[in-house]
Every structure is written in C-alpha cells, then in structure tokens.
Design goal:
Blueprint: H1 6-16, H2 23-35, H3 38-54, E1 56-57, E2 64-65, H4 71-74, E3 79-86, H5 89-98, E4 103-107, H6 125-135, E5 139-142, H7 148-161, E6 168-171, H8 187-195, E7 198-199
Parallel strand pairs: 3-4, 3-5, 5-6
Antiparallel strand pairs: 1-2, 6-7
Helix pairs in contact: 1-2, 5-8
Length: 201
C-alpha cells in the first residue's frame, strides 16, 4: 500500500473497517471510486452523510426511521394486535420481503449473550414489556435468529411475557437453517416459518 498516495491509503483503510470488506476488496473499491465520475462519488458521499444525519430509531419499535415513527408504526392499516420481536432492523426488512406479516414489530437491538456481557438491560426488553402492557396484543411472535443466543433470548422473553394474561407467545417455525441470520433467508423460507409459528411452552 506504500505505493499509493496518502489520501488513497486513507480511503483504503476506512473501507477496510466496513464489515465483510478485506484488504483486497477495500483496495478494489478505492480504485473504482478514483476512476468513477466525480458526480457519482459526490452522490455516494452525500447519501452516506444524509443517511447518518437523517435516520434515527423509531420511538415505538426501534426500527430505522426518518421521523418520530417508522413507516410501519405510522401505517394505520397494520394489525396492532400482533407484535413480531426481532433482533435487528435488517430482520424487519427480511420478514417484510416475505409479504406474510402485517402486524407491528419490536427491534431488540441485539440478543442475550452472557459471554459478551449482553444481559436483559442491554437490549430493548423493558421497552417491549412496556409496549405489551400498553397495547395488550393478542399475540407476540418471537422471531429471533435460530442460534444459541437467539433461542436463549426467545426463551427469556417468553418467561417475561407470562405475566400478561391473554397474550399468546409464539416462536417462528424452524423453516430457517439453525445458526443462520434472518437476513440470509429467502422469501419462501421466511413465509413458511411465519405460517408455521408455534406456541412457546
């Protein structure tokens, strides 16, 4: 990398910090951007800055939003009697692609992981319990990833929701490969998982 001018080296280093981008990919991207039209690079830079400045967490479900509420929470046609609990906003997008679900969401912003020091106070669990208490949905779907952490999180939430009478707690069916993230699942698999959800006992 010593053969590149300092601004290019810095660009490569910054690109390398992105998830899934190794040294060679970062170098390829940097060289592509150097050869791209200036207006294309400016448009990319503006999109990055706008996304960072304008996007925030929805005050109700913690999905990404540009206002106080995300598009889903603001939609009067969504079924407010069902809340689907997911780990990250990207999981909301994955489930929405299945076109099988029309209720609300709640984004935990993580999953329980004692090894990494992530406990119930480090995810949006208190906010979920408050929403369930306020909305009194008929069903809460636990759509955490089918991993050890996701299963532990689902089980913990199920136990916490026992105190709410009349709220059915379900878990999405295992149409998803164990150990996989929701974002990598195809539409058909996600649709089957949602249709085959089961009551947690």
């Amino acid at each position: 990398m010593a053969s590149f001018p300092e601004p290019v080296r810095r660009l490569i280093e910054e690109l390398e910090r992105l998830p899934g981008i190794g040294p060679k990919s970062a170098q390829r991207l940097a060289l592509y951007l150097l050869q791209a039209a200036e207006e294309d690079v400016i448009r990319l830079a503006e999109a990055l800055v706008d996304a960072k400045r304008l996007v925030r967490r929805c005050s109700a479900c913690f999905n990404w939003a540009t206002g106080e509420l995300c598009e889903i929470c603001a939609d009067p046609y969504r079924d407010r009697s069902v809340i689907c609990v997911v780990e990250q906003p990207i999981d909301v997008a994955a489930i929405e692609r299945s076109r099988e679900y029309s209720g609300l969401y709640h984004v935990l912003e993580g999953s329980l992981n004692p090894v990494l020091g992530v406990g119930p106070d480090n995810i949006r669990l208190a906010e979920l319990l408050e929403r369930v208490d306020t909305l009194r949905p008929s069903e809460v779907i636990l759509a955490t990833s089918p991993t050890v952490e996701g299963d532990a999180t689902a089980e913990y939430i199920r136990a916490e929701l026992e105190k709410f009478e009349g709220v059915k707690v379900t878990r999405i069916a295992l149409g998803l490969p164990v150990g996989a993230d929701l974002d990598y699942a195809d539409q058909v698999t996600l649709a089957r998982a949602l249709r085959g959800r089961r009551l947690m006992e």
